[in-house]
Design a protein that fits this description.
Layout (H helix, E strand, L loop, with lengths): L1 H16 L3 H9 L23 E9 L8 E8 L3 E12 L6 E15 L4 E11 L2 E4 L4 E16 L17 E17 L3 E17 L4 E14 L5 E15 L4 E10 L9 E10 L2 H8 L2
């Protein structure tokens, strides 16, 4: 994973460094930055621009059950879909109680664009690889599938008004993301068990005028795999709130506080951080194959 991360970062630096000067000036003068197509974890009603690449690195720190830093990548397909390679978060007590871990996953997100205050509707499907844990009494294998249906609404018309001080409510801009999530989880061990559930998910973004920083928050749900007292799968609520900072048109940094329903209290809450880099690789595609 470290080698993949280094390769993707080197590619991003090369792409941005070789952009024409005019393109760089255009990025500075653009009305709105390129926004990631998710919050901390839930997808939003948008997709990556066709043939562009989004690369992100994320991790949960200052937590005994924190996950290791991980990298994900998203490729835009024709402005109506995106291919995702990343991770799915789970809680595993197969090794030690309440361990937060991430399992490699792949997914596809489809997008239906709407107009003005309704940004669009996104349908996202992701499937994890198999998470394995070997104990004396059994070999445990867990896997997860996730399905999201999310719509995005805003109180200002079109994305080019995101940095307009006159848009919104006296310059205060609000963007909301609401939808449903379906999770199907399977656990093979001493016995085979499964669980599936629907839960509402949502998130919000708030900022004033053309601020570089936004307040963001979300509620999500993940499965928890238990083996003590009988093998079972629990539903874990995850609430995350913090700040999204735009370093430039192409680079954002998210940092917030993550709390889960299986935590004992505020002292067990963790810091979640994420950096996202939008790489305009459509420029290379246009040069190679034309419009």
């Amino acid at each position: 994973m470290t080698r993949i991360t280094s390769t993707l970062i080197a590619l991003a630096i090369f792409v941005l460094a070789t952009l024409p000067a005019a393109a760089q000036r255009g990025a500075v003068l653009a009305a709105a930055p390129l926004e990631p197509t998710n919050l901390f974890s839930i997808p939003t009603g948008s997709v990556v621009r066709s043939m562009d690449l989004d690369v992100s690195g994320t991790g949960v720190v200052l937590s005994e059950a924190g996950s290791r830093p991980l990298t994900s990548a998203v490729l835009g397909l024709g402005d109506i879909a995106q291919l995702e390679m990343g991770t799915i978060s789970i809680v595993s007590s197969l090794d030690r109680p309440g361990k937060l871990t991430d399992v490699r996953s792949a997914g596809l997100k489809l997008f239906l664009p709407l107009s003005r205050y309704a940004r669009g509707v996104a349908i996202s499907f992701r499937r994890s690889a198999t998470y394995r844990q070997t104990k004396v009494e059994a070999d445990y294998k867990a896997k997860v599938g996730e399905f999201y249906a999310v719509s995005t609404l805003a109180n200002y018309p079109e994305e080019q008004y995101a940095t307009d001080p006159q848009s919104g409510w006296n310059g205060l801009k609000v963007k909301g993301h609401v939808g449903m999530k379906y999770v199907d989880a399977q656990l093979d061990g001493r016995q085979t068990t499964g669980s599936s559930f629907w839960r509402p998910v949502g998130g919000i973004e708030l900022w004033k005028n053309d601020a570089r920083a936004r307040i963001i928050a979300e509620i999500n749900w993940i499965p928890g795999f238990e083996r003590e007292g009988g093998e079972r799968i629990e539903i874990v609520r995850v609430v995350t709130g913090g700040v999204r900072y735009f370093f430039s048109k192409h680079v954002t940094f998210d940092i917030g506080v993550r709390s889960q329903s299986n935590y004992g209290g505020l002292a067990e809450s963790a810091i979640q951080a994420k950096i996202n880099l939008a790489i305009p690789t459509h420029g290379f595609r246009d040069r190679l194959v034309g419009n």
